[in-house]
Amino acid sequence: MTMDLVVIYKCMCDRTRLRILHLLSRGPLCVCEIQAILEEPQIKVSKHLAYLRRHGLVRTERDGNNIIYRIAADASDRLDRNLSCLQDCAQEDRIFREDLRRLARIEPLSCRVEPASR
Amino acid sequence: MTMDLVVIYKCMCDRTRLRILHLLSRGPLCVCEIQAILEEPQIKVSKHLAYLRRHGLVRTERDGNNIIYRIAADASDRLDRNLSCLQDCAQEDRIFREDLRRLARIEPLSCRVEPASR
DNA sequence: AAGGTATATACTTGTCAAGGAATATACAAC
DNA sequence: GTTGTATATTCCTTGACAAGTATATACCTT
Question: Which CATH class is domain B5-107?
Answer without folding.
Answer: mainly alpha
